[in-house]
Amino acid sequence: MNPANKSYFKVGIFVLISFSVLVGFMIIFTAGSLFQRTLRLETYFDESVQGLDIGSPVKHRGVKVGTVQEITFVQNEYADKLTEDTNLLYGRYVVIKMSVPNFVKGVYGDDLKKTIQRMIVSGLRVRLASQGLTGTAYLEVDYLNPEKNPPLVIGWEPKSLYIPSAPSTISRFTASVDKFFDKLEKADVERILVGVNELLKNLNQAVVDAKLGDLGKESVLLLSDLRKTNSELKSILASPEAQNAPKKFDQTVTQLQGTIKRLDSIMASNQGDISTAIENLRIASEDLKEVTANAKKYPSQFLFGEAPNKSKLWK
Question: Which residues pair with 71 in a beta bridge?
């Protein structure tokens, strides 16, 4: 073989091997994404999506589940579905398409549509969120109150699985501020100011009629009397008699306790004599009761004594 042909052959072999290695590396590093199921979702916003770009993350409760694939307007994406009237109403909506791999695992086809529909009824919404102070935005998929976040009205069939959007926190705040200023502009500020002036005049007149100056003088006199009474009370409490009163009271209580102890000892030592005296008193009471009964039956005997003995002549 010609030496020149040999060198060409070696170069060809080297190119083929390099190309094979490159293809192998590409297959290895992209095999996961090639065989991974990709779920396409889309939503619509009736507000500014400033800060959101293609490739921005899609998060579900803080966990990244996908990325933004396309951002456009409804009037561009569904031009054939809109009329002149509906184009004015819905054409300004922003269409955002998302790639969310394995958003709902193990569910496919019609079952997947039914599952996502049930999630939407439960409050599944997509809203715009901001990452700190950098201004970069991302899409947040989360469950919100379905009554406070109704879906946008659409008049076409979405090309991908559709999840309704919810207003972002910034848009809610802006809307609240706009409503406040609208109400402020509609309010009759001049009439309110006139009413406030009238209220101040009436309040001043009420203060004058109340004679607060006289009340102040009487309050000063009352305070002086209270100070005087307080000083007198302090002098009474500081007197020796008032200070010695608790000691005298303690002494009286001590003496009373001693007297009660002596009385208990006397009663205990003369318990027998006391019992005898009580028994004698009971006997005397019974005798007195008997005498009283005889006096009721024989009053003459009680007054004149016992009747004399009968004479023998009367036998």
Answer: 96
- Measured CA to CA in angstroms, residue 124 lies from 24, 51, 147, 148, 215 at distances of 42, 23, 12, 12, 67
Q: How big is the CA angle at 198 (ends 196 and 200), to the nearest 5 degrees?
A: 70
Sheet architecture: strand order including 161-162: 124-130, 137-143, 57-60, 63-73, 94-99, 40-45, 161-162
Three-class DSSP category at 210: coil
Residues in the chain: 315
pTM attached to this predicted model: 0.49
Task: Note the helical H segments in 210-304.
Answer: 212-238, 240-269, 271-297, 299-304
Which residues of the chain fall short of a pLDDT of 70? 1-10, 27-37, 132-135, 175-178, 180-181, 183-190, 207-216, 241-246, 248-249, 270-271, 273, 291, 295-315
255-302 residue pLDDT tens: 777 777 777 777 777 667 677 777 777 787 777 777 677 766 666 655
DSSP 164-176: -B---HHHHHHHH
Instruction: Name residue 264's amino acid.
Output: D
Kind of pairing between the strands at 63-73 and 124-130:
unpaired
Q: Give me the residues paired with residue 60 across strands.
A: 63, 141
Q: What does each C-alpha distance from 175 to 52, 137, 164, 168, 169 come to in angstroms?
A: 20, 20, 20, 11, 10
Contact 47, 171 (CB under 8 A): yes
Distance of CA 290 to the CA centre of its chain: 89
Return d(Cα 81, Cα 87) in angstroms, integer: 9
Question: Which pLDDT does position 311 carry in this prediction?
Answer: 47
Tokens encoding 206? 């009420």
Report helix, strand and coil shares of the chain as percent, to nearest 5.
Answer: 60, 15, 25
